[in-house]
Design brief:
By secondary structure, the protein is an alpha/beta fold. The protein has helices spanning 8-11, 22-29, 48-57, 70-80, 93-104, 119-127, 144-150, 173-182, 242-251, 259-269, 272-295, 316-325, 349-365, and strands at 35-36, 87-90, 110-115, 131-136, 155-161, 188-192, 217-223, 236-239, 300-301, 307-311, 328-329, 331-332, 341-345. It comes from Desulfacinum hydrothermale DSM 13146.
């Protein structure tokens, strides 16, 4: 049997449950006109400048990509004031996370992960046989004091997702700075900023500000999948001390980011008008969504990202399945240890109105009086 050939730490992995694709839903149920609010994608689509950049590169697809990603790395360095030789490109920021883990973690070493947080941390650590140390959130916030108490001589990495997925909460700057002062210098702190473009800069910190300070090594990961609308191209990056980047380059595949992805990301990075339009949509739509959810008597978690949690009066999977029948894809949060919560990202005004209308119908069809949550 093939299972006898698989190492126990691989056999124990539960595959990552992605948001259901629209195409799959419509194929299975024979419906059309579905909407998806399950994967924190940008409902406005990709940056127009990115689309133009992709088109201009199509005739070069018979050539391998620039393995160094020179122009994109150089622009990231210029835009954010970070060293170019500390920038590593990835097939989404997921790959940067995996590269850090593969480079610095081996069996017997520990990685501290807030719980719940992005599931890829857990899966990637399991893949290399490392030991996971989960620190529960406190009031849906990352518990920095709890993380400090969990550090041992075997700790190699600490993941800080800011804003945190799935809660959308952020850490105040002073709290993070006090935390860094107490982390041992031989521990890497990975700050995952996949949603940082949506956060209020006055209410939190930016990982880039801590790259060159004395103390623990800090690695910052970002993505073009969310605010920049390039999820389908899979392109992200990490910024870190050049000494750390040198080791990640030894581990990564030589052509890990495609030519269209590099071109699109480079163009999107300077499309400030599109980025601001994406932020404005989220800022304007969230208060309306909050109000509608409150009117249904449902509890929710305010967010600093483009998604938020809503607590259901029944198991979230029940609501999830009922919403699918209506052509609306949301995310049931069972895999995150939140069996009574769904998570939705902000859509267009039309999509948001349909979500609220459908949720009201589903709760009514399930015989749940609004206000009983």
């Amino acid at each position: 049997m093939i299972s006898k050939l698989v190492p126990p730490h691989i056999a124990a992995i539960e595959p990552y449950p992605p948001g259901k694709p629209i195409e799959e839903l419509e194929r299975e149920l024979g419906i059309v006109g579905s909407i998806k609010l399950a994967s924190n994608e940008n409902p406005l689509g990709p940056s127009p400048k990115a689309l133009q950049a992709i088109e201009e590169k199509l005739e070069t697809l018979h050539r391998y990509p620039d393995g160094s990603g020179y122009y994109l790395r150089n622009r990231i360095a210029e835009k954010f004031g970070v060293p170019m030789d500390g920038v590593v490109l990835g097939n989404g920021s997921n790959e940067i996370i995996e590269l850090v883990i593969r480079t610095f973690v081996q069996p017997g070493l520990e990685v501290i992960v807030p719980n719940p947080s992005f599931l890829v941390y857990q899966l990637s650590v399991q893949c290399v046989g490392g030991s996971l140390v989960f620190v529960p959130l406190r009031d849906l916030m990352i518990d920095l004091e709890g993380i400090l108490k969990a550090i041992t001589e075997k700790t190699r990495l600490i993941f800080i997702n800011n804003p945190n997925n799935p809660t959308g909460t952020v850490l105040p700057r002073k709290n993070f700075e006090a935390f860094l002062e107490q982390v041992p210098k031989d521990v890497l702190v990975v700050v995952d900023e996949a949603y940082i473009e949506f956060a209020d800069p006055n209410g939190t910190f930016l990982g880039f500000d801590y790259l060159d300070r004395r103390g623990p090594w800090v690695v910052v990961t970002r993505t073009f999948s969310k605010a920049y609308g390039l999820a389908g191209l899979r392109v992200g990056y990490g910024v870190m001390d050049p000494a750390v980047a040198d080791y990640l380059h030894r581990v990564r595949q030589p052509f890990n980011v495609s030519t269209p992805a590099q071109a699109a990301a480079l163009a999107a990075l300077d499309d400030e008008a599109f980025l601001e339009k994406s932020r404005t949509l989220v800022r304007e739509q969230l208060p309306w969504l909050y109000q509608q959810v409150q009117e249904m008597g449902l509890d929710f978690q305010p967010t600093q990202a483009n998604f938020f949690l809503i607590r259901m009066p029944v198991e979230a999977k029940v609501v999830y399945q009922a919403m699918l029948q209506e052509g609306v894809i949301v995310r049931a949060m069972n895999s995150y240890g939140l069996p009574r919560h769904i998570r939705i990202n902000v859509g267009t005004p039309q999509e948001n109105e349909r979500f609220i209308r459908t949720l009201r119908k589903v709760l009514k069809d399930l015989g749940l009086q609004q206000g009983s949550a």
